[in-house]
Amino acid sequence: MPSLIVLLPVHNRGSLTADFIAHLEQLLENSMTIGVVVFDDGSTDETIKLAKQIMPKLTVVSLDGNAYWGGAINAISDYIQQHAEDHAEDALYLLANDDVRFPSKDALFAGINATNRETFACARSTMIPDLGSESISRAAASNITPEPSLCYHQEKGAFLTATQNSPANVASTWAMFSTKAVWNSNLKVPQSIPHYLSDYWFTYNLTKLGFRLSQPSGFLCYVSTESTRNKPSENNLKGIMPLARDRIRSSLQVTSPGYGPAWIEFLSQEPISALVRKKVL
User: Which segments within 48-149 are labelled E, that is strand?
Assistant: First the structure.
């Protein structure tokens, strides 16, 4: 029985998916037994074939192609509850993107050691150009500061840097360790919450249920700007009018972080005034 169960939502990124599984196996060799459950959101490439070449016994859960990240979270919750008897009571789960890599085994164990029944651990990320060994080595040598931990302030309707008095209660789920208790909470992400907000919605509502979010300093991961399409902005070279035009276009795209209705949906879970919502948007 695996001591670590990897929960991997995927879609049409065969090489990235296979490389991620191989990366984990290499880091945790002789340390933990790994099981992988792939939640395939309608891939039309060779994602599953390539993944099984690395781990022939992985489990595949097929989704309908419209699940996206929030739907995958809900499918994971259903799967774990349906297969509760197949997993040890003290099993650890790693929810992860296939386009992240970890600097070392120690980074993984920093997250593992911070996880218990009441606490889930989320890695802080650093963006790098690609996931090649040279990029990872350069990032590890440069000691780049990862993204800050965040606290969502209900009264202010704002995301601020977490402090001792305002601990982290929201995080990206590039890599998240948890126990079965998190998934047995049956917390379901609304389908109206898009990808870029669904992990914030999920982690924030876990803390509202009483779970504690931990982001230990050593639990770090690298994320590819190429695969996330999160490349450095060139807006400062465009001028005022083109920049304004791009921002208007962005606000009308459902998949854009600037899409207003998605933020209203996120904020509507709290009794925030219309004035505060307008300020946030």
Answer: 59-62, 92-96, 100-101, 119-122, 124-128
